[in-house]
What does this fold into?
Amino acid sequence: MRHIISVLLENEAGALSRVAGLFSARGYNIESLTVAPTDDPTLSRMTLVTIGSEEIIEQIKKQLNKLIDTVKLLDLTEGRHIEREMMLIKVRAAKEDREELKRLTEIFRAKIIDVTATSFVIELTGTSQKIDAFIQAVPEGLIVEVVRSGPIGIARGEKGLTL
Amino acid sequence: MRLSFITRGSAPFLVLDQTGRNPVAFPPFQPVLNGRPDPHACVGGRRGPCLGRRDRWRSPELELSGAEIIVQALIDEGVEYVFGYPGGAVLHTYDALFKQDKVKHILVRHEQAATHGADGYARATGRCGVALVTSGPGATNAITGIATAYMDSIPMVILSGQVPTPVIGSDAFQEVDTVGISRPCVKHNFLVRDVHDLALTIRKAFYIATSGRPGPVLVDIPKDVTDPNIKIPYHYPKEIKLRSYNPATKGHPGQIRKAVDVLLQAKRPVIYTGGGVILGEAAKALRELVDLLGYPITSTLMGLGAFPMTDPRFLGMLGMHGTYEANMAMHETDVLIAIGARFDDRVTGKIELFCPHATIIHIDVDPSSISKNVRVDVPIVGPVGNVLADMVRLIREAKAGPDQAALQEWWRQIEAWRGRQCLAYDRNSPLIKPQFAVETLYQVTGGDLYLTSDVGQHQMFAAQFYPFDEPRRWINSGGLGTMGFGLPAAMGVQLAFPEASVACISGEASILMCIQELATCKQYDLPVKIILLNNGYMGMVRQWQEFFYESRYAHSYVDALPDFVKLTESFGHVGMRVDQPGDLEGAMREAFAMKDRLVFLDIVVDPAENVYPMIEAGKGHHEMHLSPERELA
Ligand SMILES: Cc1cc2nc3c(=O)[nH]c(=O)nc-3n(C[C@H](O)[C@H](O)[C@H](O)COP(=O)(O)OP(=O)(O)OC[C@H]3O[C@@H](n4cnc5c(N)ncnc54)[C@H](O)[C@@H]3O)c2cc1C
Ligand SMILES: Cc1ncc(C[n+]2csc(CCOP(=O)(O)OP(=O)(O)O)c2C)c(N)n1
Ligand SMILES: [Mg+2]
It folds into this structure.
C-alpha cells in the first residue's frame, strides 16, 4: 500500500543522506521525498511517499525512528489527512491548442503563469491523482516538460506534529 | 543573531546593556590566542564577531585547544586505552596525547586492528572502546572494524582525523568522505566543524554509543579544529539529553504481564537468548528466570556464556551449527521467548519453517529488531535486565507455576534428542581432530579463559566444544564474520585484564589477516596464546564446496603457508608446532605456563574435518545433517 510518512528531523548536515541511505541500503521503495526547514529553524520536516507491504512499512517506520536525527514521525495514512502536490507543466501552445489548454486549466483550477507565442507554463496544486489526471488530459504531444514537487501532507484536526 | 542565542538557553549569561534593550554577554567574551586575548575572535576557522554558546562567556577556568579538548574529554569519560595509528590529520591530537599520561595509547600496526582492539576491550569489559585514526587511508582501514562492531552492537567511539575545514570537498591530500563512507555501518556519526562543538559532540558520541542498543559512533575531526593555537574554555557536560534520541528504559507492564501468562501456560517452552543479554548485563536476571521456571534454554553464538553452558538446562547453541536438541526443541516448542536475540538467518533457517507451533515472545531494546524477520506475538521493547527483573517478580507473585507434568514430558523428549550425541566425533583418529583440540584447551584452562576467535570452522568448534559459564568470555565476530578479528581483539582483552589468561583461536587463513599485530603484542608485552587450528584449508569454505560444489575446492587451499614458528619467533615471541594428539595437552600446558610470553601454538589438525550438525541455508531446524555416518533417519 502507499503510505505518506511525515518526519521531523534535526536540521543537521547529513540528515537527509541518512534517510536516503537507509532506503537504498535496505532496498525500500521511495516514491518521492520532499524536505525543508520548519518554522523552528532547528527542525526540518520531511514528507516521504513509499509503497510496501504492511510488514515493510512497519520496518521503514521503525528504521526511520531509529535514526538519531529523527525527532518525531507520523504515518499520515493512518488517520484523516490532507495531501497536496504541486506541478509546473510546460506545454506547446500553438494557436489551435490554446483554447483547449485554457479550458483544461480552468476545469482543474490551475493557473497559467507564463505565456509565449508558442508555450504556456501551467501551475497546478492538488492531490497526486488530480495531477496525474491533468497530465492525462493534456492532448497528445503537447507536453514539453513536467516538474512535480512530490506530495506534502498534514493531519486533519487540531493535533500537530510538533515537539 | 543575538536573539537566537537567548532562545537557545544562554540567557543566564546574557545581560541587557545600559539602554535596557540589547543583550550583551556577561562576563564579556574573551577568546584567547597563545594565552593572550585574541582581538580577531576567530574561532573554528571563521572570521568575524564571534557570538556563541554559553561556554564562551564562562570565566576562563580551563582553556584548551581542540586537540587538548579531545584528550581531556577522553579522560573525563574515564577512558583507559585508545587504540590508534598516527598521521597528518591527527598530529595535533597525538601531540596532546604525548603531554599527558592518563589515557594510554596503544599503537597498533594497521587501523583495522585499532578498531578490533577497541572492540575486544569493549566486549570483555562492557565499557566503550576507543579508536583514533588519521584521515583518508586511516579511516578506510578502520571501516572493517567499525562494521564488525556495528553488526554485533558493540559500544565504540572512533575519532578520525579529517582535512582542514577550508579544504573539505576539494579532494585534498588524504581526504575521504569518512562520514559518508561510515554512515551505513555506524549507529551515528558527526563531523565537527567548530571547536566549540567538540566537547559536546564527543560527549554525545559516548552517550549514543553506550546507551540503548549499543553501537559504534564515529566523530570526524578536521585538523584545524584541533589547532593548538586556538584555545577555548573547556566544559564537559556530565549529563546529556537528546530530544531526538530516547532509548527505552522500561518494558511495557501490560506486555510483560501478558508474556508471563503465556510463559506459565507453556507445555513445551524454549528460552532463546542472544547477545543482548550480555550487552545488557542481564546474565544474573536470566539465571534467576531459568531457576524459577526450569525451562530449557538455548543461545545464539553471540549469547554464549550468559547462562552457564555446563548447566544441564542448557541445550547448546542453536542455528546452522547448533545442537540437534536445541534445534529440535525450537521446531517443536509451543512457547518461545527470545531474549536479546535478533532472529538472524543463521539461527532461523527458512523463515516459513521456523518454530511452526510457537507463540513467540520477544524482548529487545531496539523496536526495529522486533518482527523484522519473524512475526512476534508478544513484543516487549525494553532493556533486557529491567524487563527480566519485572518478569521474575511477576512469576514469583503468580498463583500457579509452570505445568510440571508437561514440563517433565518435554524434558524427557529433549533428553532423547540429546541422547543422539550430535557432537560426537572420532576420538581414535591418528590425526588431531579440531574438536579434540578445543576440548583439550578447555581441560587445560579449566574454563578460566577469555577466548577470542577468528572466523571459520575453528570458530564453530570453539562455540560447540568450549563451554563458557560466564558472559564476556567468548569474544567473536558473529554478524559480519570478520576474519582477522581474533588477534587484535585479544590484545584489547589482555589490556583490560592483564592478569587473565587470554587466548585467540584461529585458522591459518584468518590469522594472516592481522598477523602484523604480533608486533603490537611485543611492544606492550601482551601474553596472548594463539591456538591455531591449522587444517591447511579455508575449512569453512572447503566444507561448503564439498557439500554444494561437488568438492571443487576453488581457491580454498591455503598454499605457501609461512612457518608459523619462525614467523612468531621473528616477532620476538615463542612458537610451537604440534601434530600428534598425544603431545597436545602437554604443549598447551607449557604454553599457558609461560604467563608473560605470547605463545603461538600451531596445531596441525585433520584437514578433512567438517562442522556438524549443519542446517543448510534455507532449510528448517528439523532438517539437520549430522555427521555423514550418522545421517538423520
Ligand atoms: C561462520 C559463522 C557461522 C555462524 N553460525 C551460527 C549458528 O550456527 N548459530 C548462531 O546462533 N549464530 C551463528 N552465527 C552468528 C550469526 O551470524 C549472528 O551473528 C548471531 O546469530 C546473532 O546473534 P543474536 O541474535 O544474539 O544477536 P546480536 O547480534 O548479539 O544482537 C543482539 C540483539 O539484542 C538487542 N539488545 C542489545 N542490547 C540490549 C539490551 N540491553 N536489552 C535488550 N535487547 C538488547 C539488540 O537490539 C539485538 O537485537 C555464525 C556466524 C559465523 C561467522
Ligand atoms: C575478511 C573475510 N574474508 C572472507 C571471509 C569468508 N570466509 C569465511 S570462513 C573462511 C575460511 C577461514 O579459514 P581459516 O581461517 O583457515 O579457518 P578454518 O575454517 O579452516 O577453521 C572464509 C574465507 C570472511 N569471513 N572474512
Ligand atoms: Mg583453515
